[in-house]
Amino acid sequence: MHTRPAGRWSLLKRDLYLSRHYYVLMAPFMLIFFMFTVIPVGISLGLSFFHFNMLELPRFIGWQNYSRLFLGDDVFLIALKNTLLFAVITGPVSYIACFLFAWIINELSPKIRAVMTLVFYAPSISGNVFFIWLIIFSGDSYGYMNGFLMRLGVILEPIQWLADERYVLAIVIIVQLWLSLGTSFLAFIAGLQTIDRSLVEAGTVDGIKNRWQELWYITLPSMRPQLMFGAVMQITASFAVAEISIALAGFPSVNYAAHTVVTHLMDFGTIRFEMGYASAIATVLFALMLGTNVLTQKMLRKIGE
Amino acid sequence: MTSKVRAVFGMPKRLNRSFTVSLMLFALLAVFGSFMVLPLIYAVNNAFKPLDELFIFPPRFWVNNPTTENFADLINLMGNSWVPLSRYIANTLLITILGTAGHILLASAAAYPLAKYRFPGSKVLFTIVILSLMFSPHVTAIPNYMVMSWLGWINSHASIIVPSLAFSLGLFLMKQFMEQIPDALLEAAKIDGANEYRIFWSIVMPNVKPAWLTLMILQFPALWGTDGGSFIYSENLKTLHYALSQIVQGGIARAGVGAAVALLLMIVPITLFIISQSSVMQTMATSGMKE
Q1: What is the dihedral of CA A274, A275, A279, A281, to 10 degrees?
Q2: If contacts are CB pairs under 8 Å, which of residues 137-166 in chain A contact chain B?
Q3: Boundaries of each ABC transmembrane type-1 domain copy (chain B) (predicted)?
Q4: Are A36 and B139 in contact (CB < 8 Å)?
Q5: Where are the domains of chain B?
Q6: What share of chain B is helix, strand, coil (3-state, %, to 5)?
Q7: Which CATH architecture has domain B69-284?
Q8: Which pLDDT belongs to residue B288?
Q9: Has the ipTM of the complex gone over 0.85?
């Protein structure tokens, strides 16, 4: 009897055979996941190099969609500017707010903690209640904001909050912030609760003087996994603003003041049926999100150093 | 004295923190807490306002003479419509229950091997799942439509239910949670002769019940609030959310009914969260990306 040297392929074949049950367990999820997430992303990347209007066959046009996007589409540049503004303002602000409020709430007694968690989390799961903000910022004197400011004597005439390009973006940002304390906020609260108290005591012995040092050297590094997770969720949400903008500012918004990359994508994808062009917009959005995520994760690794 | 106040606010005594700072933090929490919760309280109040109070000037925050008229009107209105209200409710329940239960099952089944074993492709698959967390569903909206129409699923509930079964956030959280199940437990089961499916079903699944609730609380509001998107056109198949948003678009005459609708839509996910809060926290504590 002689033993055959196990080649790379036969090793792999053995591994595959031994793991066959794992593949069976994963198959249903992965099948659907690839069908409706991975493959569509692939199709979208591919389509962005085509001219495609759902009626004729796709026609390859190379980089034309992209050059048109950046050089010939003024509205896209407005959308890009607004989206980056959202990403720069709502992203970090909501991320820091999630952490800050989680940090404060964590020190309350369990009962009050549960109530406060609900208070901060409820808006993000309350469905379409953001229409309440339509009443608050309503353009006539029935609107709460107008009524309030007129009573104070700050303004004499009601302001058309949602039809004035000077205000509309700011209002969408405020409502977006209101809605943004979601999954990552929960993750932060839970992360704070798992921090080992003995670590804090050991830190005091090692010369940690105040609460800021405790935060930087012990609390934040201990919950790095939750911070990473939260960053991904917040970045994705802040780049994908669309529904709120449409609900509050209309579609399209006045002079495109609250237009975002996603509303631009909807415009070309579901109204004009320029699928190739819309796919190019989607690809740019994907690249933006991925880039920001990689950058943020690099920054988060530096915590506590 | 100060310790007494701390006790009232439920703040444990901490080193290096003065009473003033505690009070300031509490004030901060109160201000932003009201910013978060006042619109919701307003929505609740609105639902119980009689019509004359809804249009009072200057507008009032609290309801003076609460009435359930708005809910009665809603039921009347829906009763007279072409498709009965029960049909919309049944559609939404079907989508929500199948979508949530199926997601928990499929995500758990896929998470178990990824959490506990290494095998060819496991790392690549998990990386793809993580990457997919990083883009919004809008990126895939157009190709998704094409895939749906190719499958012939346009205008069927499958177009909403099936994609929601493979939601990558669910797989991710479930995997992180399952990593905490002790290996010894699985090995003991293996020695007793259980196969992988058996281990998954009778050992792993019962052990991750808190994570089920987390997936439920993430999935449920999304499906409960779905309007069918661009996939469902037939009135018989529309969801409750769609039907209700049609009513709200009725304008001023329907303002009272609209307020009742808003309350109905928000109260369900919030109640669900209150019930499952502690379990959700337990799962979230283990979430996060392993480096």
Answers
A1: 20
A2: 141-144, 147, 151
A3: 89-276
A4: no
A5: 69-284
A6: 75, 0, 25
A7: Orthogonal Bundle (1.10)
A8: 66
A9: no
